[in-house]
Amino acid sequence: FLPGSGVKAAVVLGGPMNVDEVDEYPYLGPLREWLAAALRADLPLLGVCLGAQLMASALGAAVRPGEMKEIGFHSIELSEEGKADPLLNSVAADGCLQSFQWHGDGFEIPQGAVRLAGSGLFPNQAFRYGRNSYALQFHLEVTEAMALEWLELYAGVDPAAIREQIPRIIPQLKPLAQRLFREWLARCQAPVPGTSA
């Protein structure tokens, strides 16, 4: 984040690497520094999976392997703060949603952040930091083609059950993803309270 760069918001997506694999992926170090500066400046960010883990790490929170990997379709429960959050509530009005997951690491909630959701395997699935920065461990954005490609590319998972669920569940995720992204972009464009538009 550079003052005067014109950047108004940023989305940070996932990847197969871990946040600490800086030797193998040297760009992770500068990216984490960029995220730390952006978060300090209250630049709206949306981090998904690895992007969420990098945001947590940039804020000084631990990112570590879970007891087992969370791969496939899993239920996510909103916290009380998540139920009151307009972004998360827009996709889980009843406090629960099913989404696609593909990760083995999880993050602790950074100091100053608000925990918004968790799952049975990973108690921290989402947090908000500042006004409009959100970290989401789960993948609402995944398409059928993406999910099938991941199943082909990455070993260590039995794809049959997941492949069977894809045609039934993924079409339900698209409107949720669109709603969440629209709501986040609207929040990014809203004037800061106490300032002129």
Write the layout of secondary structure elements.
Elements: E1 10-12, H1 28-40, E2 45-48, H2 50-58, E3 63-78, H3 80-84, H4 86-89, E4 96-107, E5 114-118, E6 126-129, E7 133-136, H5 144-153, H6 159-189
Parallel strand pairs: 1-2, 2-7
Antiparallel strand pairs: 3-4, 3-5, 5-6, 6-7
What portion of the residues fall into strands of 2 or more residues?
Answer: 15-25%
Percent in helix:
25-40%
| SSE series | EHEHEHHEEEEHH
**Major sheet attributes:** 7 strands, mixed
Oligomer: single chain
The global form is globular
| Terminal-residue CA separation | 22 Å
Main structural class: alpha/beta
Task: Please tally the helical runs, counting DSSP H or I stretches of 4 or more residues.
Answer: 6
Count of beta strands: 7
Low-confidence stretches: none
Rg? 17 Å
Query: What is the spatial order of strands in the main beta sheet?
Result: 1-2-7-6-5-3-4
Compute the average pLDDT: 91
Please provide a brief summary of the model.
The protein is α/β, with parallel strands linked by helices and 197 residues long. The chain is built from 6 helices and 7 strands; from the N terminus they run E-H-E-H-E-H-H-E-E-E-E-H-H.
Q: Main traits of this protein?
A:
197 residues, alpha/beta, seven-stranded mixed β-sheet, 37% helix
Structure description:
- The protein has a seven-stranded mixed sheet with strand order 1-2-7-6-5-3-4.
- The protein has helices at residues 28-40, 50-58, 80-84, 86-89, 144-153, 159-189; strands spanning 10-12, 45-48, 63-78, 96-107, 114-118, 126-129, 133-136.
- Helix 1 (28-40) crosses helix 2.
- The chain has six helices and seven strands; from the N terminus they run E-H-E-H-E-H-H-E-E-E-E-H-H.
- The mean pLDDT is 91.
- The protein has 197 residues and is an alpha/beta fold.
- The radius of gyration is 17 Å and the shape is globular.
